[in-house]
Write a structure and sequence with these properties.
This protein has 120 residues and is mainly alpha-helical. The chain is built from four helices and two strands. It is elongated, with a radius of gyration of 21 Å.
Length: 120
């Protein structure tokens, strides 16, 4: 019995280090891209936003999903629960991005046309 507990502890410790490594790599990529800001990523626009911003959004959503998968134990849940949690979150994130892009573009046009001053 003690052997099973030790083996489980070692596998859990190994799992934590793997999750730490994956999240660290993704974070390091984000930081490097934020510091370097490659010109082709800042000059390329996709759906009204710079490609670099899309990469940041995608990497951040991936990290959030992976944290939920690993630390909230979604990997051990039933397929229906996993889908309910993940698809709801994905839908809300897509909706938030859509609203931010739509309203941000509208507000930019209002300020650009001179209806409101940029004095804030």
């Amino acid at each position: 019995m003690a052997h099973d507990t030790t083996q489980h502890h070692e596998s859990a410790t190994r799992r934590i280090w793997i999750v730490f490594a994956i999240l660290s790599v993704v974070t390091i990529v984000e930081v490097i891209l934020g510091i370097i800001k490659p010109e082709f990523l800042t000059d390329t626009f996709l759906v009204g936003m710079r490609l670099l911003n899309w990469i940041f959004i995608i990497l951040t959503v991936y990290k959030a999903y992976y944290i939920a998968w690993a630390f909230m134990h979604l990997e051990h849940e039933t397929k229906g629960l996993r889908r309910a949690v993940v698809w709801t979150a994905i839908f809300l994130i897509i909706y938030l991005v859509f609203i931010l892009l739509t309203e941000g573009g509208y507000i930019y046009d209002v300020y650009k046309s001179g209806y409101v001053a940029w004095d804030f």
